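Fill in residues.
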């Protein structure tokens, strides 16, 4: 019985912790703030997001912790598709994703060198990155001609302005969400596999718990 109470209390504390984390996340919301709810198991979204990233973001930002051929393998792309749609430099499939922009040029043009985005969704969160990409607006007082509601005073120009004009709001939200989904995958390429294995591990532990509790009751029944 003591073991059962301990497990119940632990589960209750975990629920409280999860609730607090969710409230902390909701505390960042604003009038136009959307929750990403991205799904890294959605390969079609990842493929679109990869295309969006390499067409609009890779000129300034690198993904130095992942290689082109790993992206191709995980996103079900053959080498021809990889070279034609994602590699726009002299890089080879086995190379890491590194931008050709020199740090000195980035600092001179934008005030600071554009950061590597390999872990951006882990440091900022998918919701923040999502809302940053979708909330640029024109600002004549800004050196870049645009500012951002999620990060006021950003030095990044609105590189998606043409896409934003060509698509309606729902389509543009999906466009940026695909980028966020791809960046979330890049931050931990094995997370889908980890979650899949994790489910089986939890099931195993639950079954083990049942047998352990039965053994515990049987042993202490003889003692008493």
């Amino acid at each position: 019985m003591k073991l059962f109470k301990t497990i119940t209390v632990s589960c209750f504390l975990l629920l409280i912790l999860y609730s607090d984390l969710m409230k902390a996340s909701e505390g960042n919301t604003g009038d136009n703030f959307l929750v990403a709810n991205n799904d890294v198991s959605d390969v079609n979204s990842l493929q679109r997001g990869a295309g969006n990233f390499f067409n609009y973001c890779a000129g300034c930002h690198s993904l130095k912790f992942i290689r082109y051929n790993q992206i191709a393998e995980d996103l079900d792309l053959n080498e021809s598709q990889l070279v034609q749609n994602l590699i726009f430099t002299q890089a080879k499939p086995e190379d890491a994703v590194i931008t050709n922009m020199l740090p000195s040029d980035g600092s001179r043009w934008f005030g600071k060198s554009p950061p590597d985005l390999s872990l951006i969704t882990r440091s900022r969160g998918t919701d923040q990155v999502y809302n940053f990409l979708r909330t640029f607006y024109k600002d004549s007082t800004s050196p870049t001609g645009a500012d951002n509601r999620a990060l006021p005073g950003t030095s990044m120009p609105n590189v998606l302005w043409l896409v934003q004009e060509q698509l309606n709001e729902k389509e543009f939200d999906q466009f940026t969400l695909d980028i966020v989904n791809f960046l979330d995958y890049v931050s931990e390429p094995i997370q889908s596999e980890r979650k899949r294995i994790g489910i089986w591990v939890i099931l195993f532990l639950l079954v083990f718990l049942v047998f352990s509790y039965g053994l515990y009751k049987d042993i202490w029944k003889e003692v008493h």
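Residues 21-27 have pLDDT under 50 and may be disordered.
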